[in-house]
């Protein structure tokens, strides 16, 4: 379940019958770090506008050790994703924000397309070049749209290119990603 307001977005994911993952996204200053002694209180302060299941899950967080903080970030390897016979794939080459939930899918696609390229090209160098030429545009589409959605949710200004991607949106991205390429 995902819900949001102007200042935050919260995501609840059941782990077991007794355990729930509560994820939250906020616009924050670049130097923000939670107070290790008050992380649970700071989280509660930031989610005061939420009611229902989010508030209920949040009320169970009584210990700062129950809060794991990490900034959302991306990885974009601009250089070739391969050197000799060594390949970077998945998040090592093109980690995205989680907004399209495509991290594992992109890694699996990398592996499948790499296998196809190795089967169809005459040498390893040609196969790796063909693999990256095929994968990079798709991985960058996912990464760029994911980043645009994050910026939109946190009220961060977007570029004209990101505005165009936001017109596609998540439903449109699903239509793009299901097409063979």
> Strands of the biggest beta sheet: in what spatial order?
1-2-3
Report the average pLDDT across residues: 91
- What percentage of residues falls in helices of 4 or more residues? 40-55%
Poorly predicted runs are: none
Strand content: 5-15%
First and last CA, distance: 31 Å
The global form is elongated
Structural class: mainly alpha
Q: Write down the Rg.
A: 20 Å
The largest β sheet comes out as: 3 strands, antiparallel
Task: Explain this structure.
There is one protein chain. With 181 residues, the protein is mainly alpha-helical. It contains 6 helices and 5 strands, in the order βββααββαααα. The strands form 2 sheets. Strands 1-2-3 form a 3-stranded antiparallel beta sheet, covered by helices on one side. A two-stranded antiparallel sheet has the order 4-5. A hairpin with a 3-residue loop joins β1 (2-4) and β2 (8-14). α4 packs antiparallel against α5 and α5 (124-154) packs across α6. The longest helix has 31 residues, at 124-154. The protein is elongated, with a radius of gyration of 20 Å. The model has no long low-confidence stretch (mean pLDDT 91).
Topology summary:
Blueprint: E1 2-4, E2 8-14, E3 20-26, H1 39-46, H2 52-59, E4 82-83, E5 86-87, H3 91-94, H4 103-120, H5 124-154, H6 160-177
Antiparallel strand pairs: 1-2, 2-3, 4-5
Helix pairs in contact: 4-5, 5-6
In short, what is this structure?
The chain is mostly helical and 181 residues long. It is 48% helix and 12% strand.
């Amino acid at each position: 379940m995902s819900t949001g307001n102007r200042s935050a977005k919260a995501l609840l994911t059941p782990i077991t019958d007794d355990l729930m993952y509560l994820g939250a996204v906020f616009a924050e200053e670049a130097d923000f770090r939670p107070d290790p002694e008050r992380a649970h209180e700071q989280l509660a302060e930031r989610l005061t506008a939420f009611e229902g299941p989010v508030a209920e899950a949040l009320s169970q967080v009584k210990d700062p050790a129950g809060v794991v903080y990490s900034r959302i970030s991306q990885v974009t390897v601009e250089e070739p994703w391969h050197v000799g016979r060594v390949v970077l794939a998945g998040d090592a080459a093109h980690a995205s924000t989680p907004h399209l939930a495509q991290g594992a899918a992109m890694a699996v696609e990398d592996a499948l397309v790499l296998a196809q390229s190795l089967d169809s090209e005459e040498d390893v160098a040609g196969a790796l070049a063909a693999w990256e030429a095929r994968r990079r545009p798709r991985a960058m589409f996912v990464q760029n749209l994911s980043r645009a959605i994050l910026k939109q949710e946190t009220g961060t200004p977007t570029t004209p290119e990101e505005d165009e991607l936001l017109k596609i949106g998540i439903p449109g991205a699903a239509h793009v990603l299901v097409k063979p390429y």
